[in-house]
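[agent] plan:
  1. take the single chain provided in the ticket
  2. run structure prediction with default settings
  3. attach structure tokens to the ticket
  4. add a short note for the reviewer (M.T.)
[agent] executing step 1
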Amino acid sequence: MTKILAISDAHGEENENLYTYLNNNDIDLVIILGDITNFGPLEFVGTFINKIADCGVEVVAIPGNCDPEGICNAIDDVSFCLHKNVIAYEDAILFGFGGSNPTPFDTPGEMDDDEIYNQVYDLLDEYEKVHNSEVPKVKILVTHAPPLNTGADRIESGDHVGSSAIQKSIQEFEPHINLCGHIHEAKSISKIADTTDVANPGMLKDNGAVLIDIKDGSNYDIEIISLDE
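[agent] step 2 finished; step 3 output follows
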């Protein structure tokens, strides 16, 4: 049994409810889905991740579009940067890719969808090196940008602004779960086809988080929780 908590978009602000929740609940791993900082400072990364780890959990993270140059090194200094990496963790296999498709705000971690697709394709291709067909595991794609045309990428106007590359990658690879952030108001769990749960916890200061409870093999429950309850 493995319990994973995913949070996103701290933007340089801690939330004491997060630490309280972790101290009061049995969580194995915390995944941070990017935008740890608000264009810096990088010093916040170590402070934030160390305080999470002090609650007795392991931590991995990816960068967001608002994190500055050097963010992966700052994560690696205190934890593990999952960006462009694939790891097996207990009952899960995690694939990580940070940054986002272009936004109107010209943020540091943006790239076009063709580049995202090519890099995520190469990342997912690594699956054959880490999986064991005799030991089922939950495949979790960890991205900052949400896939296009899901509950996770809908802004207040109703428009969908997610990544077509992430959407295409999910349709081709069919991970069990896509954890994503980026769109603060799009806290949700939705579905791509019948294969992939897409979960966006929303902005950390709004107390949203995604809880994944893996029972055994590829059997799991997933829900949005509120850290202040």
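[agent] step 4 note for reviewer: The first helix runs from residue 16 to 24.
[agent] ticket updated
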